[in-house]
Design goal:
The protein is mainly α and 522 residues long. The chain contains 19 helices and no strands.
Length: 522
Amino acid sequence: MISSILRPMRTSQRVAKNTFYLYGKIAITSVCLIFSTRYILQGLGVEDFGIFNLTCSTIGLLTFLNESMTAATQRFLSYTEGEGNKDKSIKIFNSSYLVHVCIAVFIALVFIALKPVVFGDYLIISQDRLKAAQTIYYFTILTTAMSMMTVPYNAVLVAHENMLYYSIMGSLDGVLKLLAAIGLIYISTDKLVLYGVFLSIIGLINFIVCRVYCNRKYTECKVNFRSHVDFKVIKDMFSFALWQLTYSASSIISLQGMGLILNSFFGTIMNAAQGVSKQVCGQLMTLSGTMMNALNPVIVKCAGAKNQDGMIRAVMTGSKLAYFLAIIVALPILFELPYLLNIWLTEVPDYAVMFCRYEVVQQIIASFTVALVTMITGNGDIRNFQIFSSLTYILRLPLIYVLLRFFANPEYAYWVTTVSVIALCIGRVYYAHKKCQLPVMQFLLHVVIPCLVVSIVTSMVLVLVIITLEPSFTRLIATVAISTITLITTAYLVALQKQEKMILAAAVIKIKQRIIKNNIPR
């Protein structure tokens, strides 16, 4: 009995600690990004800043391939870590490292070969800045290649749940880029070229530091292509990455296609409103996604260890945590959105409030099943699941077009996307049950229904706040505070199971003991 409680308690504490590290990284990198953008713009000037972004976006067109390989590498390494098979881990790391080196070289050669086309026909750059633009083009290729070769080492850190070092490296990257941006202001030379040099040096530092650390700490990171590369592993990883790529491409096509359809019927004002809603939704995705970054390796390692009970327990708890992390921010945003947008933007685009509310609701719905995606991909057999997910995204477009063609109401586009998100969630539950034996009734009774009860109770309390007070900063603070207190209280009473409450109580006791111990005079 005691061991059955202690094991999930240790896992929960590890996930909580890793989540804390990752949120710390986000906080540091976000602050660095805000100031870096300001200093880069000040140092480069508007024209060179535009050239830099244009060049980077051109090379970024093929990096989605690398993102799919990253997901495959992390999945295979975490799964094998769960199996406890060190020999296989060595083969997977060496195979993935070889693949990433090949991808880096391939993309570098492709873009070097495309340089005459890119600068001759594609990019429009003034003649006096053309040489500098071509120089930073090469530096950007070099930086991208080194970033790709760092991916397998980052995947090893994630597989071992070493989020502390992973977060330190991410924070270091943000701080170095901030220092590079500040350096642009004080160093007199061609600053566009200088910034390209800085970024390449930062990429090289990240690669070297990460490689040295992983080589010393993890045995699987010893590179020996001749002895440890397994072409069957490479084939399996490419197959997995291909279906990940299909899903990623379909989601991008769906998003960009919807923007084009809205533009064709209503003009650029709808694209402005859509852009605002995507930024708001992106922040919510970061909040819940960060926690999942800490939980994902736990779920996949349970799959590798054939620990079905542990995997289901992690998925159940993770689904609730992802949902609560989403709504603790989402509900105040939903109720205070007009006031927040008026503070944030000097001029709020028409339909921005409505589009944002639809996007936030869709993100809340999707957060129910975000842990199920890891469960399914951890299983490895993702072909049918990714085909279903891709079709769910792609089929939005003809439905949106037909509805707008006949009714000319932009809200109907978001009706379609909301229904498709619900369909996607239902599909995730179906495939999690089919591939991973997820107990559907248990998921509904222990996750979905309690979370809905918490949301309804918190929303009813917030309605009273909104009715009682006039829009103001005071009401915003009251909304956030009351929403947080109500949500935490209701979640503890309604949503947490007995074992989860015991784990939480044990964690609180441990924190109190540490505080008392630290305050005892020595």
